[in-house]
Structure formats: C-alpha cells, structure tokens
Amino acid sequence: MTPATDSALEEVHATSTGIFTGSVDACSIESAFDRRIRFVGNTLHRLLPDGSGPDTINLSSYKRIFVIALGKAAGGMLDTLLSRMKRRKGMSGICCSSQLPKSRNWRLRYFEGGHPLPNEDSFAAAQATLTLLKKAKKDTLIFFLISGGGSAMFDLPLDPKISLDDTVAFHRLLLASGAPIGEMNTLRKHFSAVKGGRLAIAAPEAAKVSLLVPDVPLRSLDALSSGPSSPDHSTVADVRELLAKYDLGPKLPPSIRSFFEREDLPESPGNKSWRPPFFPKLQWPGSVLTRRVTAAASMAGEDEAFRDSVFEILLSSHDLVENAKALAEKAGYHAVVDNSCDDWDYAEAARYLLERFHELRAIHPRLCLISAGEVTVTLSATPGAGGRNQQFALACALSLAKYSSERLTVFSAGTDGIDGNTQTAGAIADPTTVARARAFGFDPVQSLAAFNACPLFTALGDAVVTGPTGHNLRDLRLLLADDG
To answer: Per-residue pLDDT for 257 more than 70?
Structure first.
C-alpha cells in the first residue's frame, strides 16, 4: 500500500468514528426528556399523548413518590428526572447502574450492578427494590426509569435457594447460546423475581410511569431489561421450547435445572391468552410511542397491577440511526439505512450487509450504509477476548481483503462502550486489515474461530475505545465507500 492510500484509509476510519461518536452524543437524555414530558410545578405533562393515558399527572395527588432507575443509562435518566421534578417530599428510591455516580441524592440507595454478568450488588439492588415496593399503596406514584443492561445488573432468582454463582453461570450460558435477546430474556423473565412484570405486581395498587431507553427491537419492548414493569406474554411452554431448542437443560447448574423442570413452574405476570405484542408496532417517522394498559387489554387478576401504567419511550436506536444518517449526508455520503439483519448471526449479517454494500456502491461510489441493532454469536466453551461487534468486523475484514486498492471501511460498535467481555466498544476493518494482522503475527481466520478478535484489532490500533457512554441504544454498523 502506498502512503497516499494509507492516508486515505485513515481518513475514512476517522470519518466513520466521527459519525458514530456524533450520533451517540446527539442522543441526549436531557433533550429526550424535554421532548416527551415536562414538569410545571407539581404537574407532569405528557407532550405527545396518544389518547391512551392521562395527558397530565398531578404529583400532589400522591403521598409518596418512588423512583426505580436501572440499566446503563440509569444515572443520566435519574439525574434528569430529579432536575426537572421539583417535588422531593415523600420521595425515595433505588438506582442500579454499571457505575456509581459521583454525586448522589441522599433519598435514594445506589448499587453498582454487574454486567454482562450479575454480582452481589445485582442481588442487593433487586432485594432492596422489592422491599421498597411493598410499602407502595394507592397514594404512591412510581417512576420506573429503565434502560438496557438491567437484565444482568439487576436480578434475583424466583427460587431463593438458587445462589449467585449459579445465577452467574445461567447468564453466562445464555450469552454463549447464540439466542437472540428476546429469547434470552424470555428465560430470564421466568427465572427472576424482578423481571417479566414482577416489579409491577410487587406494588399492585400504585400508579406507575415507565420511562424507557430501549436496547431491544422496538417490536419487543417488553424485553428491555427483561420487562420488570410491563406485562409478559411469553409462557412456561415457551421456556421449555427454548431450553430444548438450544440444548440448555443439561448445561444448567443443577439448582436451576431443577427449577425449570418443576411441573408448577410459575407463569410470569400477564394474560397469556392475549398474545399480540404488548406495545404497538411502531411506524416511523412521527409515531407517538406510548401505550397505557387498559381494561380493553383483557387483563384480569394480577394484571390489575398494570392497569394504571403509562409507558413512554425517551430514546431509541431510531434516534441513533437518524443522527448517523444526517451526519453521513453532511459529510457528503449517500446514506442508506438497512436494519433488516437485526438479531441475525454475525456471519450471516456480514455476508448480507457486504453484498448490499457492494451493490449500492456500484451506483453511489461515495456511500454510507447504516445498520442498527444487534447480531448474535454462539460461543465455544473457552472463547477468547472479543464481542459481537469485533466478530462482525473481523468477518467483514476477511471478505474485504480482495479489495486491496479501494477505500472501504466497516465500523461496528456498541453504543454503551462495551463489546462482549472486553472494554472496547467494537472495531474498524478495511481491505488492509488481514494483511496488517498477519504482519503482526496474527492469523485472522484462527482469531475469528476462537472468538478472539480483540487482541488483533488492539494491536492494529483499530479497536474502538470510548469508555462507558451512559447510553445503550444497541449497536451501530457503518459501511463506508469513499471512491467518489
């Protein structure tokens, strides 16, 4: 490669990185709050009501206000809510995130939950939340601030005899299974005392407002942090099918295998005869992303706990994609969005997106193909250091090697700043990646097979390192061609 070509590729690397970081930075939780809700005195105003719930909520009508914040964006969501909500009397709550904030409100308890695997604080936060919710009555308003990552960092087994070590093994097994996030979270919901709507039924009489920053497909919002405040319509039969589908039963710790084999395995809260998605299918742009559970939803019994619930999406991967598209176009690229490979196996997604990329760049030589969502990996028993984004990027690098004279870049990273079991967010690949890796003594094919992409990309200087972003809006993939 000539120095001029090296410089040109570095420029495309920098452009893709700038689009990613700019897209994440533009997804401000503060501005998202102000677009969706506003506090005027002690009254909460829903700015985009859809007729499915009250346009206003008078906080003065409630003696107590509980705030439960969980997930990777919990700190930012909590700080923003408290800065907008002036009332403090009767307020208490729980914050469970992957990092303890520097400044804390004395009315709340803070926990540093584990991710991607639970830790002692994950259990402690869940138990403290259940204890607090037992105090909720009809005069209580609960804010649930829910973002991605809560499935791991906030957990407690439904069977109190199951240990933390066994719970960690259960989560590790799910992560390695290759199952899409929705299927993993179906299993988590039926395992946990705080998922699949069980936080809602812990305070059945209270009014509830759930503010969401999802890291799951918008068609499956009840999978966000395994749906602690929303009704669940998956069933025990679904659980048994998934255990068989991924051959998980024999691999489970004995205590968890015995739990799932119980004939009286409890159903998660939610009317199982009402199987359409709890959240409506969303049409972009301009849809109002809200829904309130009403009597028309055919709910009964324990589902009464969801009757006075309001759900608002503050941010989603849609916002991320729209920001990326605008930044790419501003940089002079023809921008195309294709999210169709969401939840696909990483290798299948790489093949599909590269094929689409080459077709499009034949028409638009200066192209940015944008794809949001997550791909899946099925890990070996002893995987190396890496994650789904680095795995995807390395698979693309092997295919790009034949285009040695062209300025092509594949960027893939997680918006939370973490990819798999590493502290990197993802990686950048180009037509020189394979040759440079071999010059450094790496075998890219072997690294891919061993799920050990991180050392390779780190050695090349092509690992994407952002640190924790306070977000979790799923992954962003950018395929850039700069041949124009």
So the answer is: yes
